[in-house]
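User: hey, got a sec? need ABC transporter ATP-binding protein folded
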Amino acid sequence: MIELDDLRKEYRSGEISVAALQGVSLSIEENEFVAIMGPSGSGKSTMMNILGCLDQPTAGQYRLGGREVSSMTDDELAAVRNRDIGFVFQSFHLLPRLNIVRNVMLPLKYTEMEPEIARDKAVSMLGRVNLANRLDHVPNELSGGQRQRVAIARALVNDPKIIFADEPTGNLDSKTSVEIMELFSELHRAGQTIILVTHEPEIAEYAQKVIHMRDGKVERVEHNAISSH
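Assistant: Yep! Here you go:
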């Protein structure tokens, strides 16, 4: 599903050039659960942004579903992000004044879907993450774990091919983090491809494959026995 070949990313600031990615090559299959780990400055967030079509590499190739991403127009990239990709962030990124149904419906605004059907789909997704009894609540009436569940429902509402999760447990306590990771494991067992950035080894243990990054390069790749969760 994802193929990277000698991917490089440089950021320039005046005379100074910083190499965030230095020749990354790897592949991720459909229905894999992958964690990307590494210390601050290792390039993991840069790689997540490129994989999620939020940023473009300086050099190298990125093929998504067999298609070279650098050849896509801005409109095509926007369509890919909306149709094929779901994002989950550490800080939830929910709109505070909208109830959780309307938050989950947001990605469907850019589709041809009728509002009633979009609402039904959002309600269905909230049921899938065990929030069917909180539909009229706004985000600040929910716990951190519940808000992250809303964010996951929003990421799922377009039936994306891939979910990207950037430090999804970073703002959660350890008990809630386990609940959120169990939810990701359930989604993976149901066929969802998941790519997760984390700096916590106990979170990475939920993934099938762990890509360790350092200084903009892949240091090593580990495979987990994911049946332990």
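Quick note: The beta strands are 2-13, 16-28, 33-37, 59-64, 67-68, 85-89, 162-166, 193-197, 209-214, 217-223. Let me know if you need anything else on ABC transporter ATP-binding protein.
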